[in-house]
């Protein structure tokens, strides 16, 4: 058990908190693998380059991730007072979310399971 009063414990926890601007999308209707193809393309790039890549990428995930990146940039400008020109994508990752299980009727009374996968996508920006 941690020592100290509850307020001291919370204060210590908040000091360790990551203050970099970020945005998170929960339960995105795409698999982690498909989201990671797009995330790998923008990891480490500056924001302007990343937005350009996402704009002209034909994958479905790129539209969703572009909207998320714009949200992270807006968080950086409004909450942290950072300039858009100095920002780059420090971290971006997709984690597995709960899978929706559906049933597809097949021949001779059989039923096949269809798994509709979801993902949690996170983008963390940082200043150069």
From TrEMBL:
One of its GO terms (biological process) is translation. Transmembrane segments: none annotated. Residues 12-21 have a biased composition (Basic and acidic residues). CDD domains: Ribosomal_L22. The keyword rRNA-binding applies. Residues 1-11 have a biased composition (Basic residues). Part of the 50S ribosomal subunit. One of its GO terms (molecular function) is rRNA binding. This protein binds specifically to 23S rRNA; its binding is stimulated by other ribosomal proteins, e.g. L4, L17, and L20. It is important during the early stages of 50S assembly. It makes multiple contacts with different domains of the 23S rRNA in the assembled 50S subunit and ribosome. This protein binds specifically to 23S rRNA; its binding is stimulated by other ribosomal proteins, e.g., L4, L17, and L20. It is important during the early stages of 50S assembly. It makes multiple contacts with different domains of the 23S rRNA in the assembled 50S subunit and ribosome. It holds the Pfam family Ribosomal_L22. GO terms for cellular component: cytosolic large ribosomal subunit. The keyword Metal-binding does not apply. Keywords: Ribonucleoprotein, Ribosomal protein, RNA-binding, rRNA-binding. Belongs to the universal ribosomal protein uL22 family. Residues 1-23 are annotated as: Disordered. This is Large ribosomal subunit protein uL22.
